[in-house]
Amino acid sequence: MGLIAEFQIDCDSLPLVSVAAAVPEATITLSLQYNHGRRPLFIGTVTGGSEQAIERAFTDAHDIEEWTRIGTAGDTRRYQAVPALSFEEQLGGQIDDLDGLEALATADAIIERITVTADGWEQLGWFADRAAFTEFASFWQRNADFGLERLTRDAEPKSPGNGLTDRQLEALRTAYEMGYFEIPRRTSLDAVAQELDISASSLSERLRRAQTQLIQETVATLWPPLPE
């Protein structure tokens, strides 16, 4: 029986990390089109953040040769980007085992979702069995900072909210209990952040990512898709 894993890879050499770092208020999800040789096209979906800041970050990114906006729906934009580097060129300074990196592309795994952060990638993946997951996890543990958030069997039902990290759950629960989501609000972002002992900007990002995750798990599939 297969496994579903949610994990994060902290590695600032991964593609588009510089874009996420430049516009931390945006949520960036990434898919890779591997039918383009050694430089798979990037398809990035960006929610929130300044359109001008995002597109300036794409232009300034060292790992993007050129980019095109291919769709817009409300506060969400979709971009296609041509990479300036192959994965080997981009990660060669960070990863010693480039043969192992190439072998991962043929492993019994499918990466369903990649969320780009200022530190690396948060991912959701399906693995054929525990051996396939162990091979994948061991590689990234050797070459970067790998953190496993959740590991379940693919036959187990997943209720809405299971995709949230512990910190996101804590932020949502605390904000809710303090009345941050009430109308009118009974508390401020600063007060909730103080309760959690984090900065207001960190709390704001944590809440946005949690809300985006909940939308993806519940109502996002009902929305019309962005034009290709």
Report on the structure:
- It is a single chain.
- With 228 residues, the chain is of the alpha+beta class.
- It folds into two domains: 3-153, no CATH class; 166-222.
- 36% of the residues lie in helices and 29% in strands.
- The protein contains eight helices and eight strands; from the N terminus they run βαββαββααββαβααα.
- An eight-stranded antiparallel beta sheet has the order 4-5-3-2-6-7-1-8.
- Strand 2 (27-33) and strand 3 (41-47) form a beta hairpin.
- The longest helix has 19 residues, at 200-218.
- It is globular, with a radius of gyration of 18 Å.
- The relative contact order is 0.18.
- The model is unreliable at 220-228 (pLDDT under 50).
- GO terms for molecular function: DNA binding.
- This is DNA-binding protein.
- Keywords: DNA-binding, Transcription, Transcription regulation.
- It holds the Pfam family HTH_10.
- Residues 164-215 form the HTH bat-type domain.
Termini separation comes to 34 Å
The count of domains is 2
Task: Give the rounded overall mean pLDDT.
Answer: 83
Number of helical segments with 4 or more residues: 8
Shape annotation: globular
Provide the succession of SSEs: EHEEHEEHHEEHEHHH
Q: Order of strands across the biggest sheet? A: 4-5-3-2-6-7-1-8
Rg on CA atoms, Å: 18 Å
Q: What percent strand? A: 25-35%
Most strands sheet: 8 strands, antiparallel
> How much helical structure, as a percent, in the residues?
25-40%
Low-confidence stretches: 220-228
Helix/sheet category: alpha+beta
Q: How many strand segments?
A: 8
Protein name: DNA-binding protein
GO molecular function, one term: DNA binding
InterPro entries: HTH_bacterioopsin
Keywords: DNA-binding, Transcription, Transcription regulation
